[in-house]
Structures are given as C-alpha cells and as structure tokens.
Amino acid sequence: MSGSRHLLSVSDLGTDGIAEVLRVAEAFAEVERRSVPKVPTLRGKVVATLFFEESTRTRLSFETAAKRLSADVLSLAVATSSVKKGESLRDTVETVEAMGIDAVIIRHSSAGAPHLVARWVERAHVVNAGDGWHEHPTQALLDCFTVRQVLAERKGVAPDELGIGCFEGLRVLIVGDVRHSRVARSEVLAYTALGAHVTLAAPGSLLPPSLEGWPVEVATDLDAALGDADVVSLLRLQAERGSGSFVPTLREYTARWGLTARRAARLGEDAIVTHPGPMVRGVEIASDVADLPRTVVTQQVANGVAVRMAILFLLLGGELPGTAEVPAVA
Ligand code: NCD
After folding, report:
1. From atom 12 of ligand 1, which residue's Cα is the shortest distance away?
2. Atom of ligand 1 nearest to the CA of 238
C-alpha cells in the first residue's frame, strides 16, 4: 500500500499491498484484545465519515477504528446536512476539507464518487466505503482476513505464519446478486490477487451484463458447486438497486439460489460461509444456516475494525502498535 494516497479500489493495493494490510491488521487485532484497546497512533489527525447511503456496520466500524487509533472523528449526518438543501458533492467535500481533515471515508450510491472526491481534495486521503455497484474494498479485505484467521485457527498457527500462501488454489464461491454487488467486485479482485479460484453462482439476470475481463468461472447449478467450495460468500439481493425485478419471486429465488439447510448439508466439512451483512434471513440464507459455527458473520464484523485501523494507519502514517515506542492510552 506504500505510496498510494487513497484506497478507492482493491486494485490500488496489488497482491503485496493486500498482504501488507492483512499483516498490519493482525497487529491491530492484538490491540483490540487488550483491556484498553486504544493506541495513540493517529493522535491529532481528523477522520471524517461522509455516508450518502445507509450503513450500520461499515460506518460504525470506521468510526470505531479511527477512535481506537486516537484520531478525532467527524461524522456528517447527510440527512440533516446542507446536502438536503442542494449543495453539490464538490462543495460539501471542499467545506469538510477546509476544516483541516486528514481522511475522508465516503459511501455513495453513485459508482465513481470516491474517485471524484480524490481528485478534488488537496491533502486529505480518501477511502471508498462503498460506491454504487462498483467496489467496497475494505469489506473484501476483512473477508480475506477472516478466512485466513479461520484457516489459521484450524491449523493451530498464527495467521501471519500462513502468510498469503493459504489463499493459493482456495476455491471461493460467490453466490447471489453479483450484478448489483460492490462486495462481489472487490472480493473477485482481492481473492484472485491472492491466488484463489473464484466461481460465481447466480441466475443469469443477476450476473453482470458482461464478464469480460473477470477472472472467474460461472456455475449454473448451485447444488453441484457447493460441494467443491472452501469459502461460500453469500450476497444480499440489492433491492434498493432494483434487484427485485430481476427475480420472479423471492420464494423462487430462495428455492434455487438461497443457502437453505438442505443445501448447506452439501458443503464440505471445513467450508466457511461469509456474508457482508446485513443478512436477510430466509432469503439468501436460512436462519439456521446463519447461526452455524461455519458462518462467520460476527467474526467478519469484529475483524472489520482491525482491518480499517490498518488502512487508516497505512494511509495516515504512525507507529505500529506492539513496537516499544507506542504506549497504550490510559
Ligand atoms: C454491503 C454494502 O453496503 O455494500 N454491506 C456492508 O457494507 N457490510 C452489502 C449489502 O448491503 O448487502
């Protein structure tokens, strides 16, 4: 990640950059296990979250990450801001930057909005927290981090010991509304950069109009594909992006593409199930399956904080925790 000023896409990182994020995130996961999970790393820095679209976990996760690094956090409540009076994105960003902020975390319903913001800011670092159907890089990074953590736990070794070699040849099956999913796009980039094989399983209407340039295979029969998967990444139907009209009925969708209990029984003993949340129980995942030990949704949420601490640290600079010079904040 060294050298890149913003995190707009997983492709800004490359394989080495992803490995670096995972390594640094391990150090911050250790901070999180301390009785006072806070370090002075980014004291004096200001991080602003600009969420133009709904979010529960991503926004809380970034804000928690920034606070654990001792940064000050400004959170623009778009619904009650001047955006509602017709202020342009550019003017909002320039106003926020004039307050002397160091990082802007932006979520927007339009693909490319974070890229525009990155062109407009003079000194702030920009992090994409989800832009339309396009990308959600930190989600993909925390998914990879979680998968490696589970693999390491099973082997009884530290995740760092596995490095990124554990992804080589790993079979990742991404299931559901790939067409409208920024998580899927970032996951494809991240997992394939790490050497995993990615297969998409979705009805034709929920696949992207063209898969040219996507280093993936497509499975048309979910039941057959499940038995081969090491990791199953489930996606929510993005109803806010019109996905409802791409499937005949929800019941039909669940019957063919949902991870029902009957289908989950086809999974290999060690298969891991991920979901970025929010889950819609009974649609893409049966409630019983959501609560199985192999479904690591809560672990993903917890790891999101460490991964976002790593991103902020790598972009904004600071001392790595665990090194002697960095005392915990009392
Ligand atoms: C995802 C998103 O917003 O793209 N959620 C998240 O950030 N954890 C996925 C989704 O909303 O389905």
Report:
1. 236
2. 12
**Ligand 1 pocket: which of 51, 60, 136 to mutate (most atoms within 8 A of CB):** 136
What DSSP string runs through 267-314?
Answer: S-TT-EEE--S---BTTTB-HHHHTSTTB-HHHHHHHHHHHHHHHHHH
CATH of the domain at 307: 3.40.50.1370
Q: In which band, very low, low, confident or very high, does the pLDDT at 324 lie, cut at 50, 70 and 90?
A: very low
Q: pLDDT-based confidence at 54, cuts 50/70/90?
A: confident
Residues 151 and 78 both lie in one domain: no
Domain region containing 128: 10-135+301-319
Q: Is pLDDT of 181 > 50?
A: yes
Are the C-beta atoms of residues 148 and 194 closer than 8 Å to each other?
Answer: no
Q: Assess whether 144 and 216 both reside in one domain.
A: yes
- Residue 324 lies inside a defined structural domain of this protein: no
Q: Which ligand 1 atom is at minimum distance from the Cα of 235?
A: 12
Q: Is residue 168 part of a domain?
A: yes
pTM of the model: 0.95
What is the Cα–Cα distance from 250 to 244, expressed in whole angstroms?
Answer: 8
Would you state the structure tokens that stand for residue 236, as one six-digit string?
A: 């929510």
In this structure, the answer to whether residues 27 and 78 fall within a common structural domain is yes
Mutating to test ligand 1, I would choose from 53, 58, 62 the residue with most ligand atoms within 8 A of its C-beta, which is 58
Per cent of the chain over pLDDT 70 is 95
